[in-house]
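Handout, section B. The chain below has 179 residues.
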Amino acid sequence: MRKFLLATGGSLALWISAKVQVPFYPVPFTMQTFVVLVIGMSFGWRLAAVTVALYLAQGVVGLPVFAGSPEKGIGLTYLAGPTGGYLLGMLPAAALCGWLAELGWDRHVSTSAIAMLAGTTIIYAFGLIWLGSVIGWEMPVLQFGLIPFIPGDALKIVLATIALPLAWKIVNKISSDQK
C-alpha cells in the first residue's frame, strides 16, 4: 500500500508540476524536472522508475497530464512532439538519481547536487536528441532546447537539494502510517 500511495502521489505531483510553466518555444519551462529529481532521490531507483512510468502511462492513455495538454494534443501524439524526449528521459533520470541515493549520494548536499545534475543531464540528452529529430538539426537545437533552460534547471537542483529532507519526512511518514 505504501508504494502504491507514493507512486500515485508522485505521479500526481508530476501532473501538477507540468501545469506550472513558463511558455517557451519549442519546449515549455516547467517544474517537472524538480519533481523528478526529488522523487528519484527520495523514493529509490525502483519506486522512482515506477512512479515516472505511471505518469508517462497516464499521458499515453490520454489523460491531460503533460504541459500544454490537452490544447497541444494528448497521448502518443503529444509524446511525438518536441517535448517527447525530455519526458522519456525523466524515467532513466529518476532511476539514476534513485540508484545514486541508495548508494548514499543523498547524505550530503554536494553529492545530492551531483546526482541531480547527472539526472538533469540524462533528461537533456534524451530531450535534445528527440528535439533535433522533430524540429530538424538545421535549427540550433542547443539554442532552443538547452541554453535557455540552464539557469532555471540549476535553480531547480538547488531547490530540490533543499527540499530533499522534507521529501524524506513525507516518505517516512507514509511508511510509518502503513505499519
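Note. The mean pLDDT is 90. Compare this with the example in section A.
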